Write the C-alpha cells for this entry.
Amino acid sequence: MARVQSKRSVRTLFLSDIHLGFKRARARELAEFLRHLDAETIILAGDIVDHLNLAQRFFWNDEHTQVVRVLLAKRRAGARLIYIPGNHDANLSLVAEMLSGQVEVHQEWVHQTAKGQRLLVVHGDQFDAEMAHSCSGFIAWLGNALYDFTVMVNDRLNDVRRVLGRPYFPLAERLKLAVSGSVRYIEHYEKTAIRHAEALGFDGILCGHIHRANLRRAGNTLYCNTGDWVETCSAVIEDMSGEMQLLRWSHAGQGGVALVPGLAATAA
C-alpha cells in the first residue's frame, strides 16, 4: 500500500456508513483521513449519523463532533456537501439540526464524472427486500451476537494498535469474509446493485450499506462501494481526471492514507 503524507486534492469524495452516535465508529480515524483530502464535492451516501443506535443507547463524544466540524469546515471552504439518507439516518431531524441546513439532501443522486460518465449514487438499503428472499442466512448471521462481538474486538484491538503506532487492521471485515454465507450475500448484493444501474441506463452505481468496500467492473458497469467507518475505514474518490479509486485509512496518528492496489477503475 502506498502511503500519502501530504494533503491530496480530489474532484469528489464519497463516504458512507460513518455511524456517528455508535460507540464503535472510528471517528478519530475519519477526522484524520478528512484532513488529508481536499474535495470539490463530498457526497455522503447514508448512515452518517446512526439515529437508530442513538434512540436505543445515546452515545456521542468529542471525536464524533470533530468529524462534523471537519465536514462543515470543508463546506465553508467551498466544498459542496450532498447527503443521501440511509436506513440508519432516514429520520433527518437530528441531522438537519446538527448540520444547520449546510448540506443538500437527496434520496438519490446522479454523479457525472470528469469523463462524462453517469453514476447512480444511493445508500443501498433499497435492495434489502430482494436480498431477504435469497440470503437470509447471512442476515441471521449479521444480526447475531457473533457479529457484535467481532466489531467490539475490532474496536479494542485497533485502539491498542493505535497506541502502539501500528496500522489499522480491519479484523471484523476479515472475519466476515471468512464466513461463506456472508460472501454469498455480498456477491448477490453487488450483482443486484449492478443490475439496477444497468436497467436504468447508468454507467455505474455507487453505494454503501453492507460495509464491504469494493471497486470493480462488471461488463461495462462500474460498481463502487465506499465501505464504512466501523469495520473497514475506507472511502471512494474521483480524482481530477475522472478515475475512481478506493482509499483505506492506514496508519493512525502517522498521516497514512493507503491506496488499495488493484482497486482503481477509470469511469470511461
User: Anything to note?
Assistant: The longest strand covers residues 257-266.
